[in-house]
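Page 37, continued from 36.
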């Protein structure tokens, strides 16, 4: 750590010079004679100021005005970039996914209605019938006969080349035949 040098002049050097008056009789205004003062040394560590005359001042160019709008009015405003990003965002599901179906015949109709409602709400996510069938086959409770039936449907779809789950209408028919007894089908019509 270095020491800070003390200035080599005192506060008395900074005061105004003493005023000397002449020895002549006092007049209405005293005459002041300035005494010679020595200039202060420049501060240490700073270079002396340049003694060159100032250079020419540069004046900025005048500001140009925008051209007038084209005839017929202004063009429509551009799309707001955040709005464009929202439109490009991947779709998300809404609503609650149906509970896993356990094969209980008394609950089959309400399960199917919940599926129909869920896929109607999320038609932007499930854009084709094969996606709806594949997703539905994941809603069967493990360890039940309903899950065994769904596993057989999955195996059939995955063995096909190309893989196909069939249409939603065909899947609905198979589901109704398997889980909704004929007397309940007549009652629901």
């Amino acid at each position: 750590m270095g020491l800070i040098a003390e200035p080599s002049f005192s506060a008395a050097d900074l005061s105004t010079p003493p005023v000397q008056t002449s020895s002549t009789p006092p007049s209405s205004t005293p005459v002041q004679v300035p005494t010679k003062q020595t200039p202060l040394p420049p501060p240490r560590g700073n270079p002396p100021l340049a003694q060159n005359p100032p250079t020419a001042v540069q004046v900025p160019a005048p500001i140009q005005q925008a051209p007038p709008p084209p005839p017929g009015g202004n063009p429509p405003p551009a799309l707001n970039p955040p709005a464009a990003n929202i439109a490009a965002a991947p779709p998300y599901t809404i609503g609650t996914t149906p509970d896993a179906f356990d094969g209980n015949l008394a609950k089959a109709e309400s399960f199917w209605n919940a599926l129909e409602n869920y896929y109607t709400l999320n038609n932007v996510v499930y854009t084709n019938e094969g996606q709806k069938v594949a997703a539905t086959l994941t809603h069967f409770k493990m360890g039940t006969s309903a899950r065994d039936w769904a596993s057989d449907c999955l195996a059939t779809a995955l063995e096909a080349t190309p893989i196909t789950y069939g249409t939603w209408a065909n899947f609905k028919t198979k589901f109704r035949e398997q889980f909704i007894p004929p007397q309940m089908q007549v009652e629901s019509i």
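The radius of gyration is 48 Å. Flag for discussion at group meeting. Residues 145-159 form the longest helix (15 residues).
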